[in-house]
């Protein structure tokens, strides 16, 4: 076939570095940008096959999100805007690691296994973040698509969730919205304006939000979007990419892990602030109090605020819909306790990675999912959306029910249901605070986080750590879980787990306890256990 000849010819222009082996991880392939050209070309090929197979548009996003500027990566997006399925992650890993001369064989195996009709048209949407390597890497994706005769649309600089949104809009023939950046702003900002329209007594101070754009794509897109907000949200934008480095001492991951504000931003006491990550799919909120103490409101606090708001509205609307919150092992013990015991909502725990949370959230009428790191969204089942829509249009219901149904309908429209989205999450949180007339301090007091600490340990091969029970227990190496259990017993209200990262070459350690000193000590002791039992490299972890 002429197509395969073209693949061979083009593939030679995107050679694989000898001996390089990469896995499709928590969120696609990630490593130093210099090693990724062949991966991008091959993901262009794979996305084309996936499009032929599903007879739908597929997305390919070039980004390494929260990782450093010199890294890059790629995520594949399925037809409804969700992450690509697990069996195709395996195809991706095989294709990525095939030796140069085997590319065609692996490609043909996938075609055969998936029974792909090669005469079917293919359509691939491509987007990229602001990393300097992203331009040539996204060109390699486009080369891969054209080598297999697929059509592509290059959206250029977009946030990851914007590309997820485009794919969903395209495959729902515009029902989800218009597949343009302008369509994205119109949909989400209009919903925000509708939601906040009866809160007109808000002062400019209450409408003000201090935003750290992580020197990434989110900052550019917030600038573009601002006029659509009609001053109902007044954003002061920091780390807009004009001088600082991407994710360097700023951004959602830095703020969450370091538990401190981004460097170099002046924050007034009590001021409501938030940080995006490098591709704007995560957001965390924070403020400092009059004593200068930093307060973080992470994904768990967002999930709590959102699910409280939704539960209240569902009750007011008289709708009997099942609501659940999906978390990971990183969720603060206090948040889980509050959700289960005070709010009485169902809580489920999954492995790290929004792809896992997303699937569990789909099992409920209303599934609120958030990772503690600020990555999350809300999913409404089709039946739930229909019930809410019917009630909002019903002329025979009382004012209270009607008002709640209208608020629910606008809430659905302000949410990007395809994936966690910092911009959409920000609009949702801002709207809820405005509607409830709540300050960030009042939101923060819903429950008090248990002090916690996250650390990284470098080991020779992080795959020696295998976990079970949604990553809460280590199965291998032998003796590690026992060591963790014994360490945890030394502290009050303590919990700890370890897991290999799927985006960096490290093992992550999480610990929480009744005091910060205990959480820090436990995290350090567990790090030492990992270092000793799982083949640590470099210096032994030092106490904090
Ligand atoms: C990605 C995933 C997240 C995950 C994070 C950290 O985030 O999308 O779901 O929590 O990586 O993963 P790990 O601990 O395996 O490195 P992002 O924002 O980098 O795409």
From TrEMBL:
Gene (name only): PGM3
Annotated keywords: Acetylation, Carbohydrate metabolism, Isomerase, Magnesium, Metal-binding, Phosphoprotein
Single GO term (MF): phosphoacetylglucosamine mutase activity
UniProt EC number: 5.4.2.3
Residue ranges constituting the Alpha-D-phosphohexomutase alpha/beta/alpha domain according to the UniProt record: 52-100, 119-167
Ranges where the Alpha-D-phosphohexomutase C-terminal domain occurs: 456-527
A Pfam family annotated for this UniProt entry: PGM_PMM_IV
Boundaries of every Phosphoacetylglucosamine mutase AMG1 domain copy: 179-284, 298-437
InterPro entries: A-D-PHexomutase_a/b/a-I (IPR005844), A-D-PHexomutase_a/b/a-I/II/III (IPR016055), A-D-PHexomutase_C (IPR005843), A-D-PHexomutase_C_sf (IPR036900), A-D-PHexomutase_CS (IPR016066), AMG1_II (IPR049023), AMG1_III (IPR049022), PAGM (IPR016657)
Catalysed reactions, semicolon-separated: N-acetyl-alpha-D-glucosamine 1-phosphate = N-acetyl-D-glucosamine 6-phosphate
Designated name of the protein: Phosphoacetylglucosamine mutase
Superkingdom in the source lineage: Eukaryota
PROSITE patterns for this protein: PGM_PMM (PS00710)
The keyword Isomerase appears for this protein: yes
Function: Catalyzes the conversion of GlcNAc-6-P into GlcNAc-1-P during the synthesis of uridine diphosphate/UDP-GlcNAc, a sugar nucleotide critical to multiple glycosylation pathways including protein N- and O-glycosylation.
Binding locations of Mg(2+): 65, 277, 279, 281
Pathway of action: Nucleotide-sugar biosynthesis; UDP-N-acetyl-alpha-D-glucosamine biosynthesis; N-acetyl-alpha-D-glucosamine 1-phosphate from alpha-D-glucosamine 6-phosphate (route I): step 2/2
Cofactor: Mg(2+)
Presence of keyword Isomerase: yes
Organism per entry: Oreochromis aureus
């Amino acid at each position: 076939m002429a197509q395969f000849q073209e693949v061979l010819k083009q593939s030679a222009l995107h050679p694989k570095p000898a001996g390089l082996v990469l896995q499709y991880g928590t969120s696609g392939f990630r490593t130093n940008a210099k090693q990724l050209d062949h991966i991008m070309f091959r993901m262009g090929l794979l996305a084309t096959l996936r499009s032929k197979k599903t007879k739908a548009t597929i997305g390919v996003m070039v980004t390494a999100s929260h990782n450093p500027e010199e890294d890059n990566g790629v995520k594949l997006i399925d037809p409804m805007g969700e992450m690509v399925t697990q069996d195709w992650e395996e195809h991706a890993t095989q294709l990525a690691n095939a030796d140069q001369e085997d590319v065609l064989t692996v490609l043909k195996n996938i075609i055969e296994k998936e029974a792909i009709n090669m005469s079917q048209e293919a359509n691939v949407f491509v987007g990229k973040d602001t990393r300097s390597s992203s331009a040539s890497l996204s060109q390699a994706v486009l080369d891969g698509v054209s080598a297999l005769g697929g059509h592509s649309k290059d959206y250029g600089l977009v946030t990851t969730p914007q590309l997820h949104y485009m794919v969903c809009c395209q495959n729902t023939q515009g029902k989800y919205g218009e597949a343009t950046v302008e369509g994205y702003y119109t949909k989400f900002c209009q919903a925000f304006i509708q939601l906040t329209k009866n809160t007109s007594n808000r002062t400019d101070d209450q409408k003000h939000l201090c935003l750290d754009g992580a020197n990434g794509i989110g900052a550019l897109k917030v600038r573009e979007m601002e006029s659509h907000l009609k001053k109902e949200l007044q954003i002061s934008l920091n780390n807009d990419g004009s001088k600082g480095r991407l994710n360097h001492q700023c951004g959602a991951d830095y703020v969450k892990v370091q538990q401190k504000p981004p460097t170099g931003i002046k924050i007034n006491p009590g001021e409501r602030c938030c940080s995006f990550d490098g591709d704007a799919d995560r957001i965390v909120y924070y403020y400092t109090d009059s004593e200068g103490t930093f307060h973080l409101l992470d994904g768990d606090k967002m999930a709590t605020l959102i699910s409280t708001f939704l539960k209240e509205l569902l009750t007011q609307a008289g709708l009997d819909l099942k609501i659940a919150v999906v978390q990971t092992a990183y969720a603060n013990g206090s948040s889980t306790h509050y959700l289960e015991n005070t709010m009485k909502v169902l809580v489920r725990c999954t492995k790290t990675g929004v792809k896992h949370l997303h699937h569990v959230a789909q099992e409920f009428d209303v599934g609120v999912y958030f990772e503690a790191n600020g990555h999350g969204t809300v999913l409404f089942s089709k039946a739930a959306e229909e019930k809410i829509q019917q009630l909002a249009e019903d002329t025979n219901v009382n004012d209270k029910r009607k008002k709640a149904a209208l608020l629910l309908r606008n809430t659905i429209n302000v949410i990007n249901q395809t994936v966690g989205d910092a911009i959409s999450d920000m609009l949702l949180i801002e709207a809820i605070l405005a509607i409830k007339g709540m300050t960030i301090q009042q939101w923060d007091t819903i429950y008090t986080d248990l002090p916690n600490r996250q650390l990284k340990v470098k080991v020779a091969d992080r795959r020696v750590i295998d976990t079970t029970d949604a990553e809460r227990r280590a199965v291998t190496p032998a003796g590690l879980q026992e060591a963790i259990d014994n360490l945890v017993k030394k502290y009050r209200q303590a919990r700890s787990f370890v897991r290999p990262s799927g985006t960096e070459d490290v093992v992550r350690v999480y610990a929480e306890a009744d005091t910060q000193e205990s959480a820090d000590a436990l995290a350090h002791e567990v790090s030492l256990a990992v270092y000793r039992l799982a083949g640590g490299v470099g210096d032994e972890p030092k106490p904090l």
